[in-house]
Amino acid sequence: MTERKRWLAGCLSALLSLPLAAAVPGPDAPADLARGKAMAQKMCSRCHDDDGNGGPRPNRSYPKLAGLDREYLYKQIYDLKTQRRRNPATNGRGEELSAADVVNVSAWFAAQRMSAGEQTLADPRQRERGRQL
């Protein structure tokens, strides 16, 4: 293949992929917070609790998503959906979300208020190690 044909093939490929790129909403796309809440509570609340402040009780060992940056949440959820990020704890739930769901869920979690969390006493060995650091 000549250099000109390779160049034309590359241009054609880029032009044909434009509609696909435009079809995927980004993190700043308008969000439906009511749908985001419904989907988050259906797909995410078992581990992240109904308000995104981590769970399950009593120790809330799963991370808090409430109040995190919308773009960060979008990227993490989108990466779960597209399998760029694999997490066995999600059991493929991210893959079930539509592109609009990713926008809505990330916007809803970002709009929530992160709780202060529960205070726990550190193990004395951990405190000593912290002092050393």
TrEMBL record:
Signal peptide: 1-22
Pfam families: Cytochrome_CBB3 (PF13442)
Chain intervals for the UniProt region annotation (Disordered): 46-65
UniProt keyword annotations, A-Z: Electron transport, Heme, Iron, Metal-binding, Signal, Transport
Keyword Flavoprotein: no
Domain Cytochrome c: residue ranges: 31-113
Transmembrane regions listed in the UniProt entry: none
GO molecular function: electron transfer activity; heme binding; metal ion binding
Name of this chain's protein: Paerucumarin biosynthesis heme-binding protein PvcD
